[in-house]
Structure formats: structure tokens, C-alpha cells
Amino acid sequence: MRVLVSCLVLALLAGCHRGGPASDDQTAADLRQKVEQMFKDIDAGNFAGLKMWADDQAILFDFDENNAPVTARGQAELDKYLAAYDGVVRKGLKIHTEIGKDDCFGDSDIGYCAVEYDQTIGAEGAPPAPFKFRGTLIARKTKDGWRWVHWHSSFREFPKPAAPAAPAATETPPADQAPANPSPQ
Fold it and tell me: What is the pTM of this model?
């Protein structure tokens, strides 16, 4: 299914693309630099830097700080998502990203990056949890420079499930410890 969706996205991009020269090295380098800066901004909690190169109609498919899937369409929803992330980072959430692969392609007006990255995410004072992601980014060139229009992130490897919580203490004793037939008085 993923292959089918990926093929459909690429076919759509090819159909909408105005044409131009084959992928150029400078475009690939520019986009790679943008991706690297994006993750530096996330790690530093600089969500304003991330928003600076987002298109007004950007679409994002990602995860929140609890690994719940999030969709944001357009500037208002993206602002809300990033404000929530900013809030938890300001409360002590630490993020560190290592990019393993960032293959970028494009020409003078459209670009695409396939990114594999590892992130450790954790609260201050707690051991960080490791996560392995794959992301795709589509960007378009405007008079003001590159703007990302689509970001999709998914797990390369699913995280290990959290350890089960200890059962909560109850005030009612278990049935085998309760009086058999309390007599009314």
C-alpha cells in the first residue's frame, strides 16, 4: 500500500510539474541544508525558524510528543501544532536528532527529500526514548526562496511498548479477603 501511495504522489507531482531541467546539484544541496536546519531548529526548540520556510498552505502528517498521529493543513493548524510542541519543550522535553540519510532531488521550481532520522525524546531528568523515523518533504521555489509544502513522517521501526504500569492500590479488598456474608446489624 505504501508503494502505491508513493507512486501516486510522484505521478501527481510529475503531472503538475511545469517541466525544466533534470535534478540539479545546487537544488539538492539547498534542500538538504534546509532539512538539516529544520532538525536543528526542532532540537533547539526554535519552532519559529521551522515556520519561516513553511508555505502558507503546508500540509503536515507527523506525531505529537506522545507519538499520537497529527495532521495539520494550512498555517493556522500548523501554528497550533507547533505551539503545542513548543509548550512541552518549554516544560523540559528534550529532543535530539541524528540524520542518517537525506536524499534530495529537484530542479529550479520543485524539490523532494527522503529523510531517515533517529530522534531521542525525553523529559528532563528521565532517560530519553529512541525513535527511528522516515520523512518525506516536498518543497516549491518561490520568489522568497524554498518553501516546504508537504511533510510526512512515519516510523521506520515501531517504538518498544511502554512497560505496564503497576496496579493502583485499591481501597476495597479483593473478594477473597472480604467478609463472606456480612450480617446486617
Answer: 0.71
Residue 95 pairs in a beta bridge with: 121
User: How is the chain split into domains, by residue range?
Assistant: 24-159
**What is the widest separation between alpha-carbon atoms in the chain?**
93
Within a 10 A sphere around the Cβ of 146, how many other Cβ atoms? Answer: 19
Give tens-digit pLDDT for 26-57. 999 999 999 999 999 999 988 888 888 999 99
Cα distance between residue 94 and residue 44, in whole Å:
9
CA distance 13 to 6: 11
Domain 24-159: CATH class, spelled out:
alpha beta
Cα four-point dihedral sign 168, 169, 173, 177: positive
